[in-house]
Amino acid sequence: MLEIGGISKRFGRLVALDDVTFTVRPGELFGFVGSNGAGKTTTMRIVLGVLTADAGEVRWKGAPIDAEGRRRIGYMPEERGLYPKMKVGDQLEYLARLHGVAAAEARASVRRWTERLGIADRLHDEVQKLSLGNQQRVQLCAALVHDPEVLVLDEPFSGLDPTAVEVMTGVLRDKADTGVPVIFSSHQLDLVERLCDRVGIISGGRMVAVGTVGELRTGGVDRIDVVGPPDATWAAGLAGVTVVSSDGSHTRVELSDGASDQDVLRAALAAGPVHEFSRHRPPLTELYRDVVTAGGAS
């Protein structure tokens, strides 16, 4: 298990991280989401030892992570971290060797991962001559060639076409299935929702929510979708009920504590036939907006 415990970091007067705490379990895909400047990259750099925390610690396998432990991390930065004029194969083999992989094993690993990610035919090309999408694939290969025990990926899906996204998600899921903890940041919340076992939301340097999407829904507001009556006037006057949206026959209402969904149903039926009555299951994009707004208000 990778544990981030009470990490805080300041840059002058700027509080970049404020007591950030979460874990990434073995075999888990953990989505780390937040706006630009929220603290995602700073957290990842502290995990890697690029930055030093002012308080808190990072633990791996139950002990504070050291230099040897960090050698077992596969890292993919958001910015391109490759040598542009170096050939793909030579570069990947070199990076594997830096992690202590023997030469023959490094060459085999480079071949295996470039084939898996669809760039085996570009081994003799300079990185700068590749498309941005293929450079991203090389970047992921660089994070994988030394057979890491942890994967830390900063915006790994940026610039990828849908086919490449599917290839990369398959690779990440396969690595997680071998017991590797995988943490990645992304602004593509629909992808995070589909792929991740759990999600951590950071805002203003503070963790404002951690859990499965289902758990985040449980902690959110209670909303009901009603399809049937032609407008939302039927909901007026219902105690504890607020109309969130109304589009023709589709009305979404929000229930405060103590409000009854049965009262909502009876009022809708009194106004006309009800074709659908269901609890709204908000996507991660909506949950994210609600959680961040609530966190900012507090």
From TrEMBL:
InterPro entries: AAA+_ATPase, ABC_transporter-like_ATP-bd, ABC_transporter-like_CS, DrrA1/2-like_C, P-loop_NTPase
Domain ABC transporter: 2-229
Keywords: ATP-binding, Nucleotide-binding, Transport
GO molecular function: ATP binding
Annotated Gene3D superfamilies: P-loop containing nucleotide triphosphate hydrolases
Family named by the database record: Belongs to the ABC transporter superfamily.
Name of this chain's protein: ABC transporter ATP-binding protein
Origin organism lineage: Bacteria, Bacillati, Actinomycetota, Actinomycetes, Pseudonocardiales
